[in-house]
Amino acid sequence: MRRTRSTAALVAAAVVAGGLALTSPAYADPTPAGTFRKLVGVGSDTTQDVLNALAGDTVNGKNYTDTAVKSAGGAGIASYDAIEPGTGSTTSNITTRSGGPSFLRPNGSGKGRLALSESLTGDKYPDSSGVAIKGQVDFGRSSSGPKVSGTALTYIPMARDAVGVAVRGSALDTLTVDQLHDIYAGTLTTVNGQTVHPKIPQSGSGTRAFFLSAIGLTDATIAPNIPTVQENQGNAALTEDGALVPFSVGSWIAQNNGVSPDFTKTSAAAGGHLAAVQLPNDTGATSPVTTVNGKLAPVNAYYENSTFGRDVYNVVPSRAIDPTSIFFDKDLYDVFVTAGSHEAAMASDSAEGVIAAFGFVNESYNGSVSVAKHAKLGGLEESGIDTQTPSAPTGVKGTRGDASVKLSWTAPAATGLPLTDYRITLTGPDGAVVAVKDVPATTTSYTFSHLALGSYTATVAGANLNGTGAAATWTGTVKYASATTGTTATTAYGKTPKVAVTVTDTHGVVPTGTVTVKEGTTVLGTGTLGTTGKVTISLSNHLKVATHSLTVSYGGNGKLLGSSTTASLKITKAAPTVTTTAPASVSHTSHAKVTVKVSATGTTPTGTVRIYEGTTLRASGTLSGGQVTITLPLLSRGSHTLHAYYAGSSTVNAKTGANFTIKST
């Protein structure tokens, strides 16, 4: 449940009401032994106990099965301790999947984030001497924010904790930030006459990193001789008066209230306690804890202080909680993410009751993935990897269809980490995002369908484990499709060939605009559609005799896309008419002259005309202007039956004229 932070009294009441102060043996890791669950978490010592409880396991003798957090699909958490339960070993191995590899137990926030990173990349954990752990870790427990910039990992806040200073001896009851700085820098060795013995948690501890930052130091500027101890274990650190060590306040509360396994109560009985700290810009010192009904409880003023208060996180792959990603993990999302009306299982009333019992303060932003509401983004925490995101894809094209657009592209150049997917974002005419689609790296096209008419912009960006890279852009106008048909009839040369064009659509939009007919790149004719979407386009009557392959194209209009079709137009030779004019008689000593005219529709025939008597060629001539006068040879006395034969041309068929008779006298 999202609500404001719990008060100290409510936290203490939850502890008492829950009856959590038990002395039974402590257990950790998924129980019973050999249990495997879907969502594997490793890392922070600070949050391991509360995550073990939220996983439904037995913590310090109490079984939390009834309050285990699970996804809507029933997937549960498997939380593995930072050190081996029972032995305290920091060199033991864990196996998180049935049949999976055995690898070194991640000890602390930094190691948890490293294990998560290498579970994603498939590299060896914790270094090249280890084993490949691809797919073995789903989230990291972290008590500190990211150490590497980037967007690959999302730090989801779970609750509020604080870092206090556990001390032994009354001389250290109250400390200032300046004193802490100087003690850990090695320049202040006594406080109120007491020699100080500072200790610091192990390398990779989130508490260590947070504390050093809070007092203005780093691993490079801390005094080199300060002993290292396992974080949040007072018995090992507070071994003499003047000892001090940074400590999770939530863990101190949970251990001393008997909720978490005890690594501290012996030192507390010997005088160990959390010092009051003079917070920056404060005139007095503030204790991190108070006592309510005999139990320790948080002091909200200390937890909410910007110097020593901190959020604790569950770190997940950003792409795994993105519902639009092909890598979306619904189980992980259900357990950890609060967004809109979706509430994380971690933010339920029962879960927040458990969180409060372990000394943490519940906040309204439990499960937030917004950087404006306490979430953080970070890069993969693995050294030596290429941190580049992909360059922009090339050659992005948009092929528009019926209220749709098909985007296609060419993959960008390779980077150190392989391309995993493409993110395609479509924005509408008003700039609002219309759709987001993630596709695998093997895909280089995607179609957005059922779009409203208008201008759209699409961006295509490749992604790898480092995040999404540069985007390439396409912009265009989405319209309805049209369909064009064209029909022709076989036409004789010299007559006007015509193409009857019809443009149709399926959305009730009347096609308007221009239609063009081409042969190859040559425009043969154009026309404007009528109110019924039709037009007949007349072409040249001098197209060569052949079968012509035509392209009929509609140019589209404000709502309709253009479309085209092909049509075949057959042009045949013209059919001629042959007429002959000859004398009825001629002297056998004179040459008869015969005039032949050849005509055809739309053209003036050319070529040769021959005069035959039967099958005997008597004379021939060449047409000029469609006619020719041919002089016959001398004819013998008697009647001669003749005919003219037009031999045809490339555009006009051959034709035999009617018989005519000349009488030679």
Write a short abstract of this structure.
The protein is mainly β and 665 residues long.
Can you give a write-up of this model?
The chain is mainly beta and 665 residues long. It has five domains: 219 residues, no CATH class; 151 residues, Periplasmic binding protein-like II (D-Maltodextrin-Binding Protein, domain 2, 3-Layer(aba) Sandwich), CATH 3.40.190.10; 80 residues, Immunoglobulin-like, CATH 2.60.40.10; 91 residues, Immunoglobulin-like, CATH 2.60.40.2470; 88 residues, Sandwich (Immunoglobulin-like), CATH 2.60.40.2470. It contains eleven helices and 48 strands. The longest helix is centred in the first third of the chain and has 13 residues. The radius of gyration is 46 Å and the shape is rod-shaped.
